[in-house]
Design a protein that fits this description.
Its main location: membrane. By secondary structure, the chain is mainly alpha-helical. The chain has ten helices and six strands. The radius of gyration is 27 Å and the shape is elongated. The termini are far apart.
């Protein structure tokens, strides 16, 4: 993670049309201040992530703000990711507190704008929904108590729920004659991002195991994690509880909680490619059949070689 790369700033295709739409409907005033603060918010994420040793950064400016992306993000453990995610909202809340205290003495309109903008941005980003910081923060906190994949699933469901509530609220306001464009975009963006995150987790499971291999080769060692799993569970069920920072060994138990076999994490990936999402019990039966076929093939080849040797002697 010592690789040095420049910060890449990417503007979403929807950003410019969104700004034009806001100008047409008469939204002015605090717009420039808000987006300047959003950019500083993401720069705080950037500085924090860089201090923790991550690289490959990019900031994408979206219609409702901006988001920091970097290629090593999936390698961050929950504690590192929590620190990075919290840095942006905390930066805005600290600025809000400072500008509020200054405004008590100076009574400045501009300080009041900065105070309200920072306070709104800080609180808004703490909403537990993707792609906001609050979504990552919730997932990181849940990850301390449960597996990462399960924490991600819970967070995605909460995020979709929040997106639906915001979208329904937007529809009600439209029916009442209001034009809350930003609220509608936020609701749709949260739902779309949440579903994208839901799909991403399946590929993340696979990439975790691939990245783990390179980390292991680089370090020369890796900590093991052993756990017992019910034979009726599927291959994806097993993969969903894989610890991305450890080498996972599964002791397969039957209905009587008796150990019937041992399965290693790389076996799960290969089995998923070959058989699809079958149960661990079915996988073990298939491997047993393959072993029997291999043994029979070996016996046949041995007998064939013996026959050829005998034929040569005669």
């Amino acid at each position: 993670m010592k690789e040095k790369k420049q910060l890449i700033i990417k503007i979403s295709k929807l950003f410019i049309p969104y700004i034009v739409l806001l100008i047409i409907i008469g939204f002015k005033g605090k717009l420039i201040v808000s987006f300047a603060l959003v950019f500083l918010h993401e720069l705080m994420h950037y500085v924090t992530a860089k201090k923790l040793g991550f690289s490959g950064f990019g900031i994408e400016i979206l219609p409702v703000g901006a988001v920091l992306k970097f290629k090593d993000l999936d390698e961050a453990d929950p504690k590192e990711d929590l620190i990075i995610s919290l840095s942006g909202p905390l930066f805005n809340l600290v600025l809000a507190a400072i500008t509020y205290l200054l405004n008590l003495k100076l009574h400045s309109y501009y300080l009041d704008v900065l105070y309200m903008s920072n306070l709104s941005l800080g609180i808004f980003n703490l909403i537990p929904a993707f792609p906001l910081d609050g979504g990552r923060i919730l997932r990181d906190i849940l990850s301390f108590k449960t597996f990462y994949k399960r924490a991600n699933k819970i967070t995605v469901n909460i995020s979709i729920g929040i997106g639906v509530i915001i979208t329904v609220y937007f529809i009600i306001l439209v029916l009442l004659g209001h034009r809350p464009v930003s609220i509608g975009i936020i609701g749709i963006l949260i739902i779309a991002t949440s579903y994208k995150e839901k799909e991403r987790i399946v590929y993340l499971i696979m990439s975790d195991i691939v990245k783990k291999k390179y980390k292991f080769i680089k370090r020369g060692y890796i900590e093991n994690k052993s756990m017992s799993i019910y034979c009726k569970k599927t291959l994806l069920d097993a993969l969903s509880v894989v610890d991305k920072n450890k080498y996972n060994i599964f002791i397969v138990l039957n209905n009587e909680m008796k150990a019937i076999n041992v399965v290693y994490e790389e076996e799960l990936v290969e089995a998923l490619k070959v058989y699809g999402n079958i149960t661990i019990e079915e996988y073990l039966k298939n491997t047993d059949e393959m072993d029997k076929m291999d043994k029979l093939a070996k016996i046949t080849m041995d007998e064939w070689n013996d026959w050829k040797e005998c034929k040569k002697e005669f």
